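Schema walk-through. Below, the input block comes first and the output block second. Nothing else is stored per chain. Lengths vary across the set, and this one has 102 residues.
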Amino acid sequence: MTGGDIYGTVFENRMVKHKMMLPPRARGTVTWVASPGHYRVTDKILQIEFDGEKTDYTMLQVKSDFDVVLNELLQIFCSLTRCGLCVSRVQLSKSFQPIILF
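--- output ---
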C-alpha cells in the first residue's frame, strides 16, 4: 500500500460514507487488518510494515500530513494560474482543515 490508498469505509448514515486512507507519505505491506465490526476512532485498524518497521493506523488521519499536502497543492495551483491565492495561503489552508478525518 502507498499513501492515499483506501483501507476501510465507515458508514455514518445512508447518505454519508467516510473512507479511511493511508497518509500521504506512508507505504508498506499489510501485516494485519481488523475484522469487520464496531470500533472507536482511536482503535488500531491496520498495520503495515516497510523496511522491517511496523506502523499502526487508526481511523484518524494525522493533521500535519493534511497540511503538508494542501500547502503543496496550493503552491502548484498558484504557480500554474499565477493567482493571488499564494498571498493568503495560510488563511486558505486553515479554512479547509477538517476537525477529524475518518
